[in-house]
Amino acid sequence: MSGPEREPDLAAAFRALRGADEERCPPFDGVLRQARGRSRRSAPSWRPVATVAALLVLAVFAVWTGRRTAGPPAPSLTAWKSPTDFLLATPGRELLATPAGLRRSLLDFGQTGLPSSPEERRSPS
Amino acid sequence: MTGEDLERRLEALHPACHGWALNCCRWDREEAEDVLQTAYLKVLDGRARFAEQSSFKTWLFGVIRRTALERRRSRWLRSLATLSWLDGRPPEVTVASPAAVFDVEETARSLRAALLTLPARQREVLHLVFYQDLTVEEAAGVLGIAVGSARTHYHRGKASLQARLAR
């Protein structure tokens, strides 16, 4: 058994404490009235809510007007050409673009372009 | 349960709730009243709902205890936020003033003083068993701890309290 009945001294002391506390216990109605008054005073104000709502409206309006006043549409990425593209067109570019051959000479690349056949190239002109 | 039923039940338990709130607030009467007001509002507003898994008294004591803990935590956070501990002033009083402790009759006074020296858990279990006439099992329910540990707190607390009162 483990209870107050096994400890009469302690039980008596606690009874005295309870009696002393009960003498000073505030009335229930008073506590409830104060609690309700306090909850009314600390009720959430409409001001913070209104401020947040106004800020949201402003933010939406700013985004909307920003979209409407945007400049001309940007050109497509595939259509874009670099303005300095011509610098890459160096002289002799066609030589670099054609694979080299053992029977071919640099002289074959005349004004007419590539020789048609090896015989043609070997025959004296 | 209607609001009126709840109010009636709260009123019936009010002296016991006041005693328990005093214990949770280390006999700081002002703080205990604040805790009691907040706990009653929680019950009446429906923020704390009785699920009928224990007795109404056990459940209500749990609400009061949690409210006292929340209040103590928010006080501590507020003192941290305002850095009031930096200016050398002591933190807000959480222990009853000596005048409040020593103004009752001798037995109650010495018991209160002895209880204040005990660890919180032991003090709470002893209060629930001796002051509120709950069983150790019910006390465990209020405190949200296992019955075994409530029993340990009960026995250790009782031994310490008897030793202190015998001095």
Structure characterization notes:
- With 125 residues, chain A is an all-alpha fold.
- Chain A has helices spanning 8-23, 28-41, 46-68, 93-97, 118-122.
- Chain B has 167 residues and is mainly alpha-helical.
- Chain B is built from eight helices and no strands.
- Chain B has helices at 3-24, 29-45, 56-81, 98-102, 106-116, 120-131, 136-143, 147-166.
- In chain B, helix 6 packs across helix 8 (147-166).
- The radius of gyration of chain B is 17 Å and the shape is globular.
Name a few traits of the molecule:
heterodimer, A: 125 residues, mainly alpha, 50% helix, B: 167 residues, Rna Polymerase Sigma Factor, Chain: A, 8 helices, 0% strand
How would you concisely characterize the structure shown here?
Chain A has 125 residues and is mainly alpha-helical.
| Largest interface, chains and sizes | A-B, 28 and 38 residues
CATH topology of the largest domain in chain B: Rna Polymerase Sigma Factor, Chain: A
**Number of DSSP strands of chain A?**
0
Low-pLDDT residue spans of chain B: 90-94
Span between termini of chain A: 131 Å
Q: Any idea what the shape of chain A is?
A: elongated
Return the average pLDDT of chain A rounded to an integer: 77
* Helix-strand category of chain A: mainly alpha
> Mind describing the biggest β-sheet of chain B?
none
Shape of chain B: globular
Radius of gyration of chain A (Å):
49 Å
The radius of gyration of chain B is 17 Å
List the helices and strands and how they pair.
The complex is a heterodimer of chains A (125) and B (167).
Chain A: H1 8-23, H2 28-41, H3 46-68, H4 93-97, H5 118-122
Chain B: H1 3-24, H2 29-45, H3 56-81, H4 98-102, H5 106-116, H6 120-131, H7 136-143, H8 147-166
Helix pairs in contact in B: 1-2, 1-3, 1-6, 2-3, 3-7, 6-7, 6-8, 7-8
